[in-house]
Amino acid sequence: MSFRLFQKGVPFLKRLLDLFISIAGLILLSPLLLALSIIVRLNLGSPVFFRQKRPGYHGEIFTLNKFRTMKNITDESGRQLSDEQRMTRLGKFLRASSLDELPELFNVLVGEMSMVGPRPLLVHYLPLYSPEQARRHDVLPGMTGWAQINGRNALTWDDKFSLDVWYVDHWSFWLDVKILALSVWKVLTREGITQPGEVTTQEFTGNH
């Protein structure tokens, strides 16, 4: 994780907003971050953080940080159980409240992510995108985004990607402010957290 104060292609005002919110957030939320770290450690064990490689700006790979929400449980043959079986009540609460994503503020601070942008997905999705869908990587990935306030996990993959590309084409400082404000409302109302009956979003298998 290397710190980038500013980087080519990222709007100056966008980066200033990211720095302001991430620094203020990490300072103000430090007691909560510490408390959640202890709670996760006591309930789920070690490690406290879930770290995973994700594609970022222009597809550059970085390590995403989140609070862990699942137990490491395997069956008799040593195979990891399903997400539904490994998910805990604490994990469901962290996801529903989006508290599991607070460690991403560190990714925002160092310049790997933005407060607003397309959500960073899995690395193995990269070869599955159409050229149009791949344009979602023309901006920094975000903690929240245009798709998140327009349906989040209730959307189809095509809808998500269309909204991501729309954001790429229509970015403005005030659009980011609007998305951040609406994201707070979405979290408070717990709207669009998962699709009905699901713990996680469906796997993306590309265009058919």
Name a few traits of the molecule.
globular, 10% strand, 39% helix, two-stranded antiparallel sheet, mainly alpha, two-stranded parallel sheet, 208 residues
Q: What portion of residues belong to β-strands?
A: 5-15%
What is the C-alpha radius of gyration, as a whole number of Å?
A: 17 Å
The gross shape turns out to be globular
Poorly predicted spans: 194-199
Q: Could you state the order of secondary-structure elements as H and E?
A: HHEEHHHEEHH
Instruction: Specify the helix fraction band.
Output: 25-40%
Q: Which structural class matches the secondary elements?
A: mainly alpha
Query: Largest beta sheet: what is the strand line-up?
Result: 1-2
Mean pLDDT: 88
Count of DSSP-assigned helices: 7
DSSP summary, beta strand count? 4
The biggest beta sheet, please?
Answer: 2 strands, antiparallel
Give the end-to-end Cα distance, rounded to a whole number of Å: 36 Å
